[in-house]
Automatic annotation (TrEMBL):
Name this polypeptide is given: N-methyltryptophan oxidase
Pfam families: DAO
Gene name as annotated: solA
Residue ranges of domain FAD dependent oxidoreductase in the record: 5-344
Transmembrane parts of this sequence: none
One Gene Ontology term of the molecular function aspect: flavin adenine dinucleotide binding
Keywords linked to the UniProt accession: FAD, Flavoprotein, Oxidoreductase
Cited Gene3D superfamilies: D-Amino Acid Oxidase, subunit A, domain 2, FAD/NAD(P)-binding domain
Needed co-factor(s): FAD
């Protein structure tokens, strides 16, 4: 049997961040991924996710600031740019631009509140009909490059890293958790489950989880009509509607919906793009993104794991830590997630909103 302080199940953005943070703090770490690097089965593939300070919840505005400083540290240690701060725009009544701009300024963000004509002059590829918030700290994260960088840094600090090695057969005991990974039996003082949509099946009732709903989402890639920089975009078209989002990825503009897609599981999803979602994306591009050719050049699917209230689940029960930055907005927090989970490993209490059993209001 092989022994470590910390084992990590899952090497997406969150698992790689935990491996990096825990090794940096002196823990012996073994990290396992069930599939090959860059696989397309989960939630961390591709080369573009939104980083933004622009939340309407001050709790997350504060956390994004902490995460931003850790992105800068990660880039220094990795020696490469992983977050391209192209800026972000939020518009539409559902984003409450006036309140959002005021909240960002309260947190030290040099946010601008623009009228639609000024915003359209700055970003002619986007249609605006009301006030627009510009978040200059916003940008685009490269998740695959980030995972590779954090995994490399963890391995340099001594972590054992194994791909195509699923974790299974968990057996908690008085000293930690015994489990199988590949052909080996391991024992860890603490096991961090950062398995995304596989979290519930892997834990198999060992930890009482909140309801976690897995959905298949789809995104579409459009060609800009003219070369030039694009910001990230979050558009809430009404107070009731969930948002559309867009961001640059390579030569394309990537467009998707932040809503609950088709309910599925990690192992039974069909990878088929919903034709109704495709039609909605085409209609949105025609109406709101005049700077793109409104015919998708490509499309793909990914998984969201939704938690109640769209918060995260970061908590410990006995020797098991549940690490699930859920609901489609966790990528921007990746290096901070590593720190928060390592705090849990070292005995810190969970953040109330991320606890397995949140305190009653």
């Amino acid at each position: 049997m092989r022994h470590v302080d910390v084992a990590v199940a899952g090497l997406g953005l969150s698992g790689a961040a935990v491996a990096w943070a825990a090794t940096r703090r002196g823990h012996t770490v073994a990290a396992f991924e069930a599939y090959a690097p860059g696989h397309r089965r989960g939630s961390s593939h591709g080369h573009a996710r939104i980083y933004r300070r622009a939340y309407l919840d001050p709790f997350y505005v504060e956390l994004t600031g902490r995460a931003g400083r850790l992105w800068e540290r990660l880039e220094i240690e990795a020696g490469e740019r992983l977050l391209d701060r192209v800026g972000g725009v939020d518009h539409g009544p559902g984003r409450e631009p006036e309140r959002m701009a005021a909240l960002l300024r309260e947190h030290g963000v040099a946010a601008e509140l623009l009228d639609p004509a000024d915003a359209a002059a700055r970003w002619p590829g986007i249609r605006f009909t009301g006030p627009v918030v510009h978040d200059p700290e916003g940008g685009v994260i490269d998740p695959e490059a980030t995972i590779a960088a954090m995994t490399r840094l963890a391995a340099t600090e001594g972590a054992a890293v194994a791909h195509e090695t699923p974790v299974r057969d968990l057996e908690p005991d008085e000293d930690g958790v015994r489990f199988r990974a590949g052909a080996d039996t391991w024992h860890a003082r603490t096991l961090v489950v950062a398995a995304g949509a596989w979290t519930g099946p892997l834990l198999g009732g060992l930890v009482p989880l909140p309801p976690l709903t897995v959905t298949q989402q789809q995104v579409f890639f459009f060609a800009p009509r003219e070369p030039g920089p694009w910001p990230t975009i979050v558009h809430g078209s009404s107070e009731e509607a969930l948002e559309m989002y867009a961001l640059p990825e390579g030569p394309w503009v990537k467009l998707g919906e932040h809503l609950r897609g088709t309910v599925t599981t990690a192992d039974t999803r069909d990878f088929t793009v919903d034709p109704e979602a495709r039609e909605r994306a085409l209609a949105y591009a025609r109406e709101w993104l005049p700077g793109v050719d409104p015919v998708p050049r490509s499309e793909t699917t990914c998984l969201y794991t939704w938690a109640p209230g769209e918060d995260f689940v970061l908590d410990r029960q006995g020797p098991i830590v549940v690490c699930s930055p859920c609901s489609g907005h966790g990528a921007k927090f990746a290096p901070l997630i590593g720190e928060l989970v390592t705090d849990l490993l070292e005995g810190a209490p969970p953040i109330d909103r991320f606890a397995l059993r949140p305190p009653r209001s």
